[in-house]
Design goal:
Length: about 80
């Protein structure tokens, strides 16, 4: 095998190895980013459920308060009409 053929073979091997390694690291980075997205989505869903639970609790409390006491919406025109 000639010297030029050996250099070409070695160069081809080196480039191929570099491409394989770079693709491997790129796939790992992409997988990590996708996993982070899943974690972020799960956290957003958890927060949404907590907020919905708080909202439902507030709605129940409001209904209980409306049964016990008169609640106005704060509109002064409506308050005058009701007071008359």
């Amino acid at each position: 095998m000639s010297r030029a053929a050996k250099i070409t073979l070695a160069g081809t091997f080196a480039v191929t190895a570099a491409v394989v390694v770079s693709v491997h690291y790129g796939q790992q980075a992409e997988q990590a980013a996708m996993h982070a997205g899943v974690i972020r989505d799960m956290e957003q869903q958890r927060i949404k459920k907590e907020r919905q639970a708080d909202f439902d609790l507030q709605r129940q409390l409001e209904e209980q308060y409306r049964e016990v006491q008169t609640v106005s919406d704060g509109n002064p025109v409506e308050a005058k009409k009701q007071g008359s």
